[in-house]
Design goal:
The chain is an alpha/beta fold. The protein has 7 helices and 7 strands.
Length: 183
């Protein structure tokens, strides 16, 4: 579960039912910073300029289906988690959502305590997972950049203490080429 902080995770919620958007925002306002849109096309435009941690989408909307909406936003933001929250609750719809890349799927029923907690946990876990993936990518990029500019020799050993990766001025420093050391 996400740690309590003063900054709430940002969620973009898209649903053509304005009453449901309002009810959802009021129900979850203490847990998330929710931006609501009743038009998926407008939501796509805002996603190009504003960072959100997660998207929640209805399945059936007039301008485009939730799956079409998700595919459109995943073109520019492939890692963003998308949850379907829909009144079109059946196994085929859920299967289509997951096959298309949805992170989770819930029927519209935000009023029960257990349901609310389950949804909060799913959102929080998906945001945490996505943040961890992004942090790992950033760390890998920093390490790669460091190794590409490193003036010495860097190496990695396997569990038997044999070198499996060598970077840097190996020949100049050791007198051996990389292949000789690795073999």
């Amino acid at each position: 579960m996400l740690k309590k902080s003063t900054i709430l995770p940002r969620i973009l919620h898209v649903d053509d039912d304005q009453e449901f958007l309002l009810a959802f925002s009021l129900t979850f306002k203490d847990h998330f910073n929710i931006t609501s849109f009743d038009n998926p096309c407008s939501a796509i435009d805002i996603l190009k300029n504003v960072h959100f941690d997660l998207v929640i989408s209805d399945y059936e909307m007039p301008e485009m289906t939730g799956i079409e909406f998700m595919k459109e936003i995943k073109k520019d933001l492939p890692g963003i988690p998308v949850i379907f929250l829909t009144g079109q609750g059946n196994e085929q719809v859920a299967r289509d959502a997951f096959v298309s890349g949805a992170s989770d799927y819930f029927p519209k029923d935000i009023y029960g305590f257990a349901y609310k907690e389950k949804l909060i946990n799913s959102i929080s876990n998906l945001i945490e997972k996505n943040r961890a993936i992004e942090a790992l990518k950033e760390s890998e990029e920093r390490n790669k950049s460091f190794l590409n500019h490193f003036q010495g020799v860097a190496f990695r050993l396997d569990h038997n203490f044999r070198p499996i990766l060598l970077k840097g001025a190996v020949k100049a420093i050791t007198g051996y080429c990389k292949a000789e050391i690795l073999n």
